[in-house]
Amino acid sequence: MGGSGQAGSGAARLLREWHPDLPLAIAGRDLGRARRVAGELGDATAVTLDLERPGLGLPAENAYSAVVAAVRDSHLHGLRYAQERGLPYLSISSGLADIAPEVVAGAQRATAAPVLLASHYLVGLVVLAAMDLAREFGRLDAVRIAAVLDDQDAGGPAALDDLERLSAITSAGLVRRGGAFTWVTGAEAEVSVPSADGVALPGQRVATLDVPSLALATGANDVHFDLAVGATASRRRGGPPSAEVLIDLAGTAPSGAPLRTRHHLVHPDGQRPLTALGIALGVERLLGLTGEPAGPGLHTPEALLDPAVAVERMTAIGATITAA
Fold this sequence. Notes:
By secondary structure, the protein is α/β, with parallel strands linked by helices. The chain is built from eleven helices and 15 strands. This is Saccharopine dehydrogenase.
């Protein structure tokens, strides 16, 4: 779903590269555009979708092995389509603020199929990178994430709609402070976000699934995620927009000595290749193309994916993780 968009088509290209014999169905509202993407991929078909109709308007005889919502499944017809057929389902567009319908639908039919809730920043890759960096700690006390999204790299129309919708739902940020999850608003949610070149941009402490995922996966009692939208360091140097995320970890080493690390996760081509990679990794794991297929129930990226493998794949597509 949304397979002819930036994120969906990018994920499809990665899956084709990794698994040349995997049949793909590129689904979208514009059949011509879907056909162009399918033609470039090879061993792919194009189908039209109606997201507002039960069954998505697809012919009853069509059969698939998974449903990937690379566009917002606002009526949850994509999720129902998957559950009724026992198919794995992945979504990336709900966000923390409006994820409740997906959670309830997944819980109501928990034994029907695996549901991967991946509406994290970069589809969970920041969480996985932080978890990989956390391996050198004996105890992790704080995880502080600061991301810069270039305003010339916010994605296609669907991604822009998601960003506007989630911004309108709440201006509050979700944090874990002293072990308790709490909301911050107003001046407390207004923050300064450092770019990779040290320039500080005005930003917001945001409500994202990364916060509970990082807190519960690492045990850190203090977690927040800050986001600024503006020019990234690469664009200030006259280059194209990049993706920038600062991962700041604090705690103790295995020896018990205090330890703090700060790393920049950067992709020179922006957020699009990383978003596509997050989707492709999730699909690969759901289908059991690497390892065992995911079991029924609700899942998040860090529950299914190996952080070290995710970092290896990030590096393979041009991302870097360097000490700040």
